[in-house]
């Protein structure tokens, strides 16, 4: 059985920039009644 290690998975700089951009603009809000809403800022 093969195991994935950090050496195997090395995303490109372009992929890392995209992940950082999505993480920066992603937000979620939890309301008093317990519901959670996710949204993305542009």
Give a short synopsis of this structure.
31% of the residues lie in helices and 24% in strands. The chain has 42 residues and is of the alpha+beta class.
Which consecutive residue ranges, at least 5 long each, have pLDDT under 50? none
Oligomer: single chain
- The N- to C-terminal Cα distance equals 42 Å
Strand neighbour order, sheet with most strands: 1-2
Judging from the principal axes of the Cα atoms, what is the shape? elongated
Q: What features would you describe in this structure?
A:
This protein is an alpha+beta fold. Helices cover 31% and strands 24% of the residues. The protein has one helix and two strands. It has one helix spanning 13-25; strands at 26-30, 36-40. Strands 1-2 form a two-stranded antiparallel ribbon. The longest helix has 13 residues, at 13-25. The chain is elongated, with a radius of gyration of 16 Å.
Write the layout of secondary structure elements.
Elements: H1 13-25, E1 26-30, E2 36-40
Antiparallel strand pairs: 1-2
């Amino acid at each position: 059985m093969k195991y994935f290690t950090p050496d195997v998975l090395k995303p490109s700089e372009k992929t890392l920039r995209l992940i950082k951009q999505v993480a920066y603009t992603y937000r979620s809000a939890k309301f008093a009644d317990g519901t959670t809403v996710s949204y993305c800022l542009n």
